[in-house]
Write a structure and sequence with these properties.
Keywords: Oxidoreductase. This protein is 45% helix and 15% strand. It is α/β, with parallel strands linked by helices.
């Protein structure tokens, strides 16, 4: 049965084009009322997406606000009413090698991606808790999960969002708030100069949005990182291996043993996906006490 979001209200940030636009269109097609957000200078693009949704018979409004502006975000959420779904999609790029990057360029990317998502999430969090329902998606990236040259600021922000998601999902569980992350591979205004034309043709943002829709459904998972692009969907995990014990070794000797046994320590066949950060300590205590 197709996913239905009838009766749900969704905010999609950075939705004037690219991934945000295709996310908004698909959410509306699934029946959600969509608030199409973008920065004030892109309000015409956001309104164009709103018009697309309305022309197709859906319900939408547009709201110009930077995700870093707490007052504007609060106003957007107040006008939206009961927000059931938040898609934190807004972002920017300021790519340079770390040697050439200024701290201001680092901070700006962190502010938009990380703090923008925090600000928007904080604005909807209490209402979701009160209604015992919420679906939130953070937009992470392979650059955060695995690294990418020239993107220390972007990668740091995107991996920080995974940590944000992991803990929010734990805190929101008792109120039926499910929090996930999506790592897209798609051509967008941010990436059009980074990929060759042939790849760009295969990486339409519309091929990512079905994964987004799955993550905001009533039956959505939580604490899940989906990767999607070119009509492929994968799942990324933050794992912990069984590792080794260095009990009883001198500290200098222990460091040498760790280096010698790195392959054994990193053996993925023993890896698990911890349910919370507490499990790392439990694994280590188990070896120490065993």
């Amino acid at each position: 049965m197709p996913v239905s979001l009838a009766g749900r209200t969704a905010i999609v940030t950075g939705a004037g084009g690219g991934l945000g636009r295709t996310h908004a269109l698909l959410l509306a097609r699934a029946g959600a009322t969509v608030i199409v957000n973008d920065v004030p200078q892109n309000i015409a693009q956001a309104e164009a997406v709103m018009d697309e949704i309305r022309s197709a018979g859906g319900q939408a409004s547009a709201f110009g606000a930077s995700v870093t502006n707490e007052d504007a975000v609060a106003e957007m959420v107040a006008k939206a009413g009961a927000v059931d779904i938040l898609v934190n999609n807004a972002g920017i790029l300021r790519d340079k090698s770390f040697a050439k990057m200024t701290l201001d360029e680092f901070r700006l990317v962190m502010d938009v991606h990380l703090m923008g998502s925090v600000i928007c999430t904080k604005a909807v969090w209490d209402g979701m808790r009160e209604r015992n329902y919420g679906r939130i998606v953070m937009t992470t990236s392979s650059s955060g999960l695995y690294g990418n040259f020239g993107q220390t600021n972007y990668g740091a922000a995107k991996m920080a969002l995974v940590g944000f998601m992991q803990t929010l999902a734990i805190e929101g569980a008792k109120n039926n708030i499910r929090v996930n992350a999506l790592a897209p591979t798609a051509r967008t205004a941010m990436t059009e100069n980074l990929l060759p034309p042939q790849a760009l043709e295969l990486l339409g943002p519309e091929y990512v949005s079905p994964a987004l829709l799955a993550l905001v459904d009533e039956e959505a998972p939580t604490r899940t990182i989906l990767a999607a692009g070119a009509q492929g969907v994968e799942q990324a995990h933050i794992t912990l291996t069984k590792g080794i014990s260095i009990k009883g070794l001198d500290d200098l000797e222990a460091a040498s043993v760790i280096l010698q046994r790195l392959d054994e320590i990193g053996e993925l066949s023993t890896a698990t996906v911890p349910a919370s950060g507490m499990e790392q300590g439990q694994v280590e205590l188990g070896k120490a006490l065993g």
